[in-house]
Amino acid sequence: MIKKIPRIGKLRSGELDLITDIAGITVGHCTLDQGAIQTGVTVIKPHCLDPYLHKVPAAATVINGFGKSVGLMQLDELGVFETPIALTNTFSVSSVAQAQIKQAITLNPEIGRAWPTINPLVFECNDGYLNDIQAMSITAEHYNTAYSQADRYMQQGSVGAGRGMSCFNLKGGIGSASRLVTLNHQQHYCVGALVLANFGILSMLTLAGQALGQQLAPCLQQMMSATEKGSIIMILATDAPLDYRQLKRLSLRAGIGLSRTGSFWGHGSGDIALAFSTAYTLPHDPEQPMPATAFIHETLLDPFFQAAAESVEQAIIHALYHAQAVQGRDNHQRYSLSELYPEWLI
Question: What Gene3D superfamilies does its record include (predicted)?
Fold first, then answer.
């Protein structure tokens, strides 16, 4: 049977309806599925160059700061990042950050000596319900595996960093989507989203405007949670030439897509959005010229804001749709939405 996924919004999708519809972006996963160990690493590579030498313009919005990420302070100050973006579980941030540092030093031995240090960029969500997070199973090898597996044709659902994640008390994980923007009938751009979805209360779940959680909740009382204890990381990318301030505005619109699914950004939820552009890079070497970039005019940003909201909402739905049921620590289990909601089957 073919599963029909609800389609969000009015804008057209890219070829794959993934963040990797933007040229140069690749995504890789390393998944640990070993009994009580249900976790992993996901790596987003913004381009095929060395990101330390060719830094990527970016900005972030902390919607709710219940999180333990690494690298956001310097990113906010300088408006760039200089490693791939890594996603993992809360207790593995330090090991993944060390892996990023070692990788960068291998490529550029003068880092931390004649050259400045490196700013690793790692985001996290707490997968401790399904995963034995105290085991701290993630190592540099897992980061390196995810990095080496990066590809345009990425997987979604219970993979990589999403392996042990829960969403609306169901199985969550990795989701992605893209939307196309056309300006003046001649300038064509793409906005893509990738989410690590680990948030929400089942009764609040809203699917394409439908209060689905209210239908499912009475049948699944044993799965219900009274408080919002999860998190979500939302990564937005675009090939449009936007500056730091414009990217900051774009990242904020990720919250629109998040709220449409039924999130109210609860006390225990860490909700962070990062937006970056692949239209140009900034050189590490001060002897190299800075890019002469003609940015999108401020009054033309509305379609990008719409694309951000649509792609994030769609990415969350994709995470729920593609996730498979997982049983992990102490026999804890999360069911997949597609199993519980057979009306998706046609």
Answer: L-amino peptidase D-ALA esterase/amidase (3.60.70.12)
DSSP 327: E
Domain-located, residue 5: no
Residue 118, C-beta contacts closer than 8 angstroms, at least 6 positions apart? 52, 82, 83, 100, 101, 104, 105, 111, 112
Structural domain includes residue 75: yes
Q: How far is residue 177's CA from residue 27's CA, in Å, rounded to a whole number?
A: 13
pTM beyond 0.90, yes or no: yes
1 domain-assigned: no
The CA–CA distances, whole Å, from 14 to 93, 104, 178, 179 equal 32, 32, 6, 6
List of residues 6+ apart from 79 with CB closer than 8 A:
57, 58, 59, 244, 247
User: Which of the four pLDDT bands, split at 50, 70 and 90, describes residue 345?
Assistant: very low
Distance CA 122, CA 143 (A): 11
Computed over every residue of the chain, the mean pLDDT equals 94
Q: What is the extent of the structural domain holding 297? A: 19-344
DSSP state, residue 129: T
Supply 84's token pair: 């791939």
Q: Would strands 85-89 and 122-125 be described as parallel, antiparallel, or unpaired?
A: parallel
What's the domain count of the chain? 1
* Cα 322 to Cα 130: distance, rounded to the nearest angstrom: 17
CA dist., res. 104 & res. 98, Å (int): 10
Q: What is the pLDDT of residues 280-289, one digit of tens each?
A: 999 999 999 9
Question: What CATH number does residue 292 fall under?
Answer: 3.60.70.12
Q: Is residue 13 part of a domain?
A: no
